[in-house]
Automatic annotation (TrEMBL):
Gene3D superfamilies: 3.40.50.880. This is Homoserine O-acetyltransferase. Keywords: Acyltransferase, Amino-acid biosynthesis, Cytoplasm, Methionine biosynthesis, Transferase. It is an enzyme of class 2 (transferase). The record marks 192 as: Important for substrate specificity. The active site is at 142 (acyl-thioester intermediate), 235 (proton acceptor), 237. Transfers an acetyl group from acetyl-CoA to L-homoserine, forming acetyl-L-homoserine.
Length: 315
């Protein structure tokens, strides 16, 4: 949350130069406040685990948030009951005439397929097109980030020689970005994927900028210059044991997976993993909500998405 200080306090300019959000008394007194509406498009097969993980990150903030869950109807979910979906999830047809402050598009275990070969790709394209005018800010996670870059900017993914799985050290490329406010110079983040987006492709696009990356894991955070689209190629929502469960699942399938890097002490799967990414993961979600949703979304929810497009000369 911002700090509220007197309008003419000398510290105001110094704090603003450091990208610390300061709210003057005038703005605080004239501020309209309402709950934020956040829509989660959950593409993961483990829907209950994923929705719990993401809501845990969204809840650790003083902001009041109304969360809606969205599913695709062009893909039959097999790891969750239809009763759960019918009770707690909505379809695109049910929300397409509504507006949201934020949208989160999760990852999905379909990286090794071409985007056009994913059975719900046409439906996902409709949702991403709709979000441009009906959502103020969108956060894409892992495969969702790759799908978003491909759909909005034509940047394709590339298959890796082997699955990238583990906890990797990262560095800040754009230190001044409020999205990484409070991050250490070097921090750890989880990756679990078979494909990557190359930094050179992102850097060649004038509408995007890299915020954080890793010497080993590659890109971690990319954002649009207009600060409406965010792409995170790791899994900041993962619990301590999520990578272990994935590893054990792959072992049972006979895939002979590599042990997740820098995850088990001594790289020994018999030992309890250590969580070294939780603090930055929480900051990522909190900063996105605070700086790129709460502080900039219009009070009239019906204008979400449209104001930003109007400023960019797109409407």
């Amino acid at each position: 949350m911002p700090i509220r200080i007197p309008d003419a306090l000398p510290a105001t300019q110094a704090l603003e130069r450091e990208n610390i959000f300061v709210m003057t008394e005038y703005r605080a007194l004239h501020q309209d406040i309402r709950p934020l509406r956040v829509l989660i498009l959950n593409l993961m097969p483990t829907k209950i685990a994923t929705e719990t993980q993401i809501m845990r990150k969204l809840s650790n903030t003083p902001l009041q948030i109304e969360v809606e869950l969205l599913r695709t109807v062009s893909h039959e979910a097999t790891h969750v009951s239809e009763d759960h979906l019918e009770t707690f999830y909505r379809t695109f047809e049910e929300v397409e005439h509504e507006h949201f402050d934020g949208l989160i598009i999760t990852g999905a275990p379909v990286e090794q397929l071409d985007f056009e070969d994913v059975d719900y790709w046409p439906e996902l394209q409709r949702i991403m097109d709709w979000s441009v005018e009906n959502v103020h800010s969108t956060l894409h996670i892992c495969w969702g980030a790759q799908a978003g870059l491909y759909h909005h900017y034509g940047i394709n993914k590339h298959e890796l020689p082997a699955k990238l799985s583990g906890v990797y050290e990262h560095y800040l490329v754009k230190r001044s970005s409020p999205l990484v406010r409070g991050f250490d110079d070097r921090f750890y983040a989880v990756h679990s994927r078979y494909t990557e987006v190359r930094a050179s492709d992102v850097e060649a696009c004038g509408e995007l900028e890299v915020v954080a990356a890793s010497e080993v894991a590659g890109l971690y955070i990319v954002k649009s210059v207009d600060s409406r689209q965010f792409f995170v190629f790791g899994h900041p929502e993962y619990d301590t044991d999520t990578l272990r469960l994935e590893y054990e699942r792959d072992v049972k399938r006979g895939i002979d997976p590599q042990v997740p890097a820098n995850y088990f002490p001594g790289d020994d799967p018999a030992r309890e993993p250590l969580n070294t990414w939780c603090s930055q993961a929480q900051l990522l979600y909190t900063n996105w909500l605070n700086y790129y949703v709460y502080q900039t979304t219009p009070y009239d929810i019906r204008l979400a998405g449209r104001i930003a497009r109007a400023k960019a000369g797109l409407v």
